[in-house]
Amino acid sequence: MERDLDKKLVRPLKESGYPEYLENQIQSILSQKKQTADTNLNIAQIYFKLGDKPNAKKYLEIARSFDPIRQDIKQVLLSL
User: Fold this and answer.
1) Which CATH number characterizes residue 41's domain?
2) Which of 6, 11, 40, 52 is 20 to 30 A removed from 66 (C-alpha atoms)?
3) Cβ atoms within 10 A of the Cβ of 58, count?
């Protein structure tokens, strides 16, 4: 049932251009000169919304490299 619900919610988002909007958000963040733990955490969250767990994990690792003791990054990383 959960998968059916997920499909019902995700399909309209994909058809609406939402993924393209999120990809544009990623490019906008990446074009910023200063990258921080927060900017990389934002990118990871966007990739997670897109269903791209490998890239979400990659940017969580980058965020953690900026701030290795930050617990929220570690918790999200462990949940993937």
Assistant:
1) 1.25.40
2) 52
3) 15
